């Protein structure tokens, strides 16, 4: 024995789990939806993705190194996820400088101002997205044509925008123009942000994360069920005015939000019970905004609002203690 | 579907390298250092002095209170000094140094290998003899066994649980003992049942020891009231409360003893020691110790006299490998890292584990990402991430409300944390402070 | 339009008046009668809320002062005699003069003097390290160097020496609040009488092992030889458990003990250089 023995408190072994591995698994889970976005929107999707990822990484590095003066932690993979999610959440026609502003809002305001990974209250990518949505409403709601549309159409409305118009003007669902079929939307032949259009591929990613135990079932299932039940009630009352509940679940950012953003470990509750409360809350707020709010889509706001309740949920919803309360 | 405990748990790689190695008798050492505090409770008081001749099995330190126990000489020879020397904590503890000379045993110990099945003593006498023989829980907690057998007023034991779980990775001493001393363990269980006045005993064994389950199951037919319960492999099933939960489904209330749900838990090693103490009149001065590690030449199970230096065991197993980074007394999840090879084997030493250099250092601490893995693996249903923060920030009254004292220090949280945070370090620190707070309040 | 403005003003005025009435009655109902001198005393205190006086903060100390019939047991170590005089004059009591004190860390076991025998790898606080085992060196009494005292100090009076890893007290910043004394799990820190020009003669060791054991673990350990006790003309040095201790209230800084100490465990600080070189420093023998 040439060297000194190490002494440390127990336990003396550690699982092979690491933060990087968890983050990378989330990235793997997003790959199918990402590829679909590139297929549908072409090179513009690649452009948005690269700008978003690179600017998120660069901003984290610069702020940590020169403002916070700590060791940069861009290798942990969390900035990468934020970058991909931000790209998923914006129209692919967005100018490069708006994406960079979004990245600054996401990383600087949403994450590092709280102290960095693990300390942020709100989902950084959503902070970035909502910041852009409020600051640049025109650019953020102009959707370029997908490959499925005729060449001369420059932009098209998202299904949710169509529905919103219908509700505002009192046009019955059956008379709405430009609503794609359910099956088209499930596969992803509709319009929207780069990463949100294919419900099926997002679910596949979610199943992968469930299998790898990156996420738990409580949050996504409770969000989706709440949306289904509440919109189902409205639909049963008045099927003329309100769309089929399945429509609500597979359009817009609901799948992306429920599977990839609401489940963000840092900003979701610690216990299963807490996650159910959180999920139901997100579902209720989402559907209220969609039906009664000013915006056609509400999942981003819903997640951010419920993020703010997470510390409270953690405070009062405790895991089942051994030996009773 | 195999039984296991309901909340939390992890499954670290088992690495039972020495499970097929028969128990070997370790050659007598030249000197021994026998600490007087080898159990939970008051240290025993030395009754020998420098220059005294002692024999194997002679009492050299006397139990000083009810929660305390006798210490016996494990060798014959001359007491060289009664002094302080470092035990596994690194702090000097009082003990007795003996220079070994021959191997002369005190009279009355039956050294034959014959199985004595007939039980000729009654319950109270068994308890008395267990106390005299210095028997403590050999699973590692070293709580004096006689104290457990006498339930507090108003409580009654209904079932005896025998812990053959050995959920710690690497360790195989209990496993080997079950295979090689099955009958003796069975008689020991009968003795414990008689002492407690119960007619039912269940041996809990994890499913990774099918040979032991099979063997003990066969033996059960000959011993009334004893049965074997195979369990799903899950750490920390060997924890008293987890074992009770796994076998009976009951939960010991927070802050209460197992007797509150009518259960008493003893280790298989303890059952064997009880057999030897009563049927063979042999006090507890030797035990089976697993010496193991990935780099070790021959991982082994040794029958070792208490007080033997760690270095002798490792020598017998092939010497310390070149790239050893850490040596642990006990298992990798709950054992203590030792700083020197002079540390003696005590009644609670279940194994010695040599960890290689590259595995010995902890990984870099990263920020908590609130993945809630610690919460989901905690077998007590606590929130380790929160308790760590409360310990770190020294908010002890809140930590008490979050039930920090329920923590059994199994280490599942630190084991599983993807950010390699030292959860248990801070929780243990907080427990110490909260414990002191509670004690000062009671005064 | 103008009617809206009027409405607004009237409504706000009514709400404001109602709130004022409610506030007035609530304030009357829940009025706490407090001795006005508490505020005065609180004002006179430094306001550091360090707890050095033994109370939860300056306000609690002020309350205690006002209640007390004599100031004998009450002392604000931060403010010193001046502050206590002010407090005494507010309360019309007699201030008890106390010697100013300063913290000292009684360990000089740097890596050079005290070879490492193992390496610790756990949460880096002294409290946790000391609960796990005796420490990285052969000396179980010595400084662990994880800086619990540094963390405890609210006055920036402790720095961790970058090379030795042992904390050092900056005498001019130390206010003797005692936070570091409580934080040190090895009980190394003592509040000693502050001498002119910050001069010090201290046994910088807490090792209570027998001479040989102590010496093996650390070359500058006190080995309990007792030479200093014999040498001291003022009976300021006592020997207990193989460890010498210099009472700072009795020490007259003659430095005779420093000269006779065979291991250099007694340290002198802030003196002008001596004319004659003291005992020749023995070569440190590496252990092993």
From TrEMBL, chain A:
Q: What top-level branch of life does the organism fall under?
A: Bacteria
Q: Where are the transmembrane segments?
A: 22-39, 45-63, 94-114, 192-211, 223-239, 245-263, 275-293, 299-317
Single GO cellular component term:
plasma membrane
Q: If you read the UniProt record, what top EC class would you report for this enzyme, in one word?
A: translocase
Provide the primary localization.
Answer: membrane
Localisation: Cell membrane
Q: List, in alphabetical order, the GO biological process terms annotated in this UniProt record.
A: electron transport chain; transmembrane transport
E.C. code: 7.-.-.-
The protein's topology relative to the membrane is: Multi-pass membrane protein
Positions bearing FMN phosphoryl threonine: 158
Q: What Pfam families does its record include?
A: NQR2_RnfD_RnfE
The entry's keywords: Cell membrane, Electron transport, Flavoprotein, FMN, Membrane, Phosphoprotein, Translocase, Transmembrane, Transmembrane helix, Transport
Give the required cofactors.
Answer: FMN
Per its UniProt record, what PANTHER family does this chain match?
A: ELECTRON TRANSPORT COMPLEX PROTEIN RNFD, ION-TRANSLOCATING OXIDOREDUCTASE COMPLEX SUBUNIT D
> What protein family is recorded?
Belongs to the NqrB/RnfD family.
Q: What role is this protein assigned? A: Part of a membrane-bound complex that couples electron transfer with translocation of ions across the membrane.
Quaternary arrangement and interactors, per the entry?
A: The complex is composed of six subunits: RnfA, RnfB, RnfC, RnfD, RnfE and RnfG.
Question: By what name is this protein known?
Answer: Ion-translocating oxidoreductase complex subunit D
Q: Which organism is it from?
A: Draconibacterium orientale
> What gene name is given for the protein in this entry?
rnfD
UniProtKB/TrEMBL annotation, chain B:
Electron transport among the record's keywords? Answer: yes
Q: Please indicate if the UniProt record lists Cytoplasm as a keyword.
A: no
Location(s) in or outside the cell: Cell membrane
> Which Pfam family, any one, appears in the UniProt record?
Complex1_51K
Q: Gene3D superfamilies per the record?
A: 3.30.70.20, NADH-ubiquinone oxidoreductase 51kDa subunit
**Keyword entries, A-Z:** 4Fe-4S, Cell membrane, Electron transport, Iron, Iron-sulfur, Membrane, Metal-binding, Repeat, Translocase, Transport
Q: Where is the 4Fe-4S ferredoxin-type domain?
A: 358-381, 397-427
Residues that, per the record, bind [4Fe-4S] cluster 1:
368, 371, 374, 417
For this UniProt entry, the molecular function terms from Gene Ontology, in alphabetical order, are: 4 iron, 4 sulfur cluster binding; electron transfer activity; metal ion binding
**Cofactor, free-text remark:** Binds 2 [4Fe-4S] clusters per subunit.
GO-annotated biological processes: electron transport chain
Topology in the lipid bilayer is annotated as:
Peripheral membrane protein
Q: Which GO terms describe its cellular component?
A: plasma membrane
The EC category is translocase
The EC number of this protein is 7.-.-.-
Q: PROSITE patterns recorded for this chain?
A: 4FE4S_FER_1 (PS00198), 4FE4S_FER_2 (PS51379)
Q: Which cofactor does it need?
A: [4Fe-4S] cluster
Q: Which HAMAP family match?
A: RsxC_RnfC (MF_00461)
Quaternary organization:
The complex is composed of six subunits: RnfA, RnfB, RnfC, RnfD, RnfE and RnfG.
Instruction: Write out the function statement from the record.
Output: Part of a membrane-bound complex that couples electron transfer with translocation of ions across the membrane.
Q: Which family does it belong to?
A: Belongs to the 4Fe4S bacterial-type ferredoxin family. RnfC subfamily.
Q: What is this protein called?
A: Ion-translocating oxidoreductase complex subunit C
Look up and give the organism this protein is from. Answer: Draconibacterium orientale
Gene name for this UniProt entry: rnfC
TrEMBL record, chain C:
Ranges that cross the membrane:
6-27
Q: Would you kindly state one Gene Ontology biological process term found in this protein's UniProt entry?
A: electron transport chain
GO MF assignments: 4 iron, 4 sulfur cluster binding; electron transfer activity; metal ion binding
Keyword Translocase among UniProt keywords: yes
UniProt domain 4Fe-4S: residue ranges: 33-93
Cross-referenced InterPro entries:
4Fe-4S_dom, 4Fe4S_Fe-S-bd, 4Fe4S_Fe_S_CS, 4Fe4S_Ferredoxin_RnfB, Elect_transpt_cplx_RnfB/RsxB
Q: What is its EC number?
A: 7.-.-.-
Any idea which positions bind [4Fe-4S] cluster 2? Answer: 139, 143, 149, 184
The residues listed in the UniProt record as binding [4Fe-4S] cluster 1, with positions renumbered to this chain, are: 50, 53, 58, 76
Q: What class of enzyme is it?
A: translocase
Residues covered by the 4Fe-4S ferredoxin-type domain: 165-194, 211-241, 242-271
Per UniProt, subcellular location reads as: Cell membrane
Q: Where is this region: Hydrophobic?
A: 1-27
Transit peptide found in the keyword field: no
Q: Which UniProt keywords apply?
A: 4Fe-4S, Cell membrane, Electron transport, Iron, Iron-sulfur, Membrane, Metal-binding, Repeat, Translocase, Transmembrane, Transmembrane helix, Transport
Q: Which Pfam families match?
A: Fer4_7, FeS
- Domain of life, source organism: Bacteria
Co-factor remark = Binds 3 [4Fe-4S] clusters.
Q: Which GO terms describe its cellular component?
A: plasma membrane
Q: Which residues bind [4Fe-4S] cluster 3?
A: 153, 174, 177, 180
- Entry cofactors: [4Fe-4S] cluster
Q: Which HAMAP family match?
A: RsxB_RnfB
Record's function text: Part of a membrane-bound complex that couples electron transfer with translocation of ions across the membrane.
Q: Assembly and interactions?
A: The complex is composed of six subunits: RnfA, RnfB, RnfC, RnfD, RnfE and RnfG.
Indicate the family of this protein. Answer: Belongs to the 4Fe4S bacterial-type ferredoxin family. RnfB subfamily.
Q: Output this protein's name.
A: Ion-translocating oxidoreductase complex subunit B
Q: Which organism is it from?
A: Draconibacterium orientale
**Gene that specifies this protein:** rnfB
